[in-house]
């Protein structure tokens, strides 16, 4: 007798149903009423027997559930990422379970543990730079399917599909320079934006423009309000005629400040943002933006993860893969 | 020998580690290296032995994980709801696992099953109206802790904490009437907005204004674009001088159309939206809005769920509870 059938006998004894009924209920058979099934499941839960979806997976060695780990949900790009992945997975017959880390390395490590312990078949994550790379590398080395949605610029610990943010910033600054700008500022959010600054500085350098630290403003807090509050010094003291912002919300806030001051965009000062969120195309002066191509990233990442899961089932090996997606500059009036 | 220790012996045999090492690894002991722990966990996974977080919960009969089910993530109110709940749960020592239903009754039912089978300690959900109420009622009757974040206006199948949307619409329309409006339109999103329409019609009725079906426009699709496209007929054919919109995004889109046509807000036509999202306070003409008080809803719902979990542990009973939160009208210039 297997330990599963011992447990089923226990559940039958406790609930007063027959072993046959218990077995059918745990398999999710439509022959069992919802009420009976829930009673049996609750008993199974108390006995730490795992019913239904997992019971099926005990046979398949699969749960058809994928874990997603994101840093936050207030960023519209990440919200859209979650939404797209959910739909792609649903089409492929998988459920998505989402956890968020609030930019905390400890929460990120815990989310990985929780999802592995809940026996997800694989994980897609938007990682904190380097925070848990050794843990992720160890998981990858153990052939746990895990695809990163950023961080491919670094020594990536696992498969990664990512927007090349450095190339995006380079493209934006080059666009400013072609338009004749030489005093180009950069408003940088504190989180995860070092590649954007790398792209900014290398575009200046390649065009013979000296880097001026007075033209870089590193901000904290909410994008819109921080953009609103930080542009004045770049415009007045830094004499910037163009400003790259590491998020669209920052640029939208900065442009609002300009409008209130009677400073014309783009005549007096031009702006480019990052991510091309919906609000950017609807702004008073529609915002030029480096597009974050959510659809491409999520599609390629999901395909890669499902391929890894399949390879694992068939015990086929394959080297770590990095897929960089080159961003487009969406040129509007700003 | 319990079935757990039989499994640990099996894992020890398969991996070549001692039973003691296996046991420590599965408990998440820091004495075991990450690499060893991952090898043991992977083996445990293959043997369908559930490690670590769940192993701990086998003792506690708790997983300290709460499931959250939302209809979508593109609605900023739901995004904020998820973010707030995550932080409240984290403070209370719980992890959050989020699933989304895309407004599909089948996906909603499946999300409930998946989360129960993953042994979450409780669920908070933003339910589809009536879709799975009998299932939710059966779960509630089985004393599975489940708190709804909407739907308390109906014959609620479980505990519910919700914004009183009907009262919100009533308040908004009364505000229009106090300002002298008699031709009041309503642009209604297709989903879940029947309570708002009830509030709209009863405010008209209580003020002796006849209901004119030509002043109600039920829209599909994206809020901003749909608002932009639907306001013309209310303004031109319906002669509306004020319009209640069931989402702020709808009002913002409608106001953009007015601005492009040279129609003044609020002089020619006034607007009130729902939810008081961040973009509403930043709009050209800051939008008056019925506030969705995410912080109150999430705080009360989380408290109620944790109380239910505790009551269940102590086998204490309590009647079903409904907590309605009365919305404020945030009056701005629109």
Automatic annotation (TrEMBL), chains A, B:
One of its GO terms (molecular function) is DNA-binding transcription factor activity. Residues 6-60 form the HTH lacI-type domain. The keyword DNA-binding applies. This is LacI family transcriptional regulator. It comes from the Bacteria. Pfam families: LacI, Peripla_BP_3. Keywords: DNA-binding, Transcription, Transcription regulation. InterPro entries: HTH_LacI, LacI/GalR-like_sensor, Lambda_DNA-bd_dom_sf, Peripla_BP_I. PANTHER family: HTH-TYPE TRANSCRIPTIONAL REGULATOR GALS, LACI-RELATED TRANSCRIPTIONAL REPRESSOR.
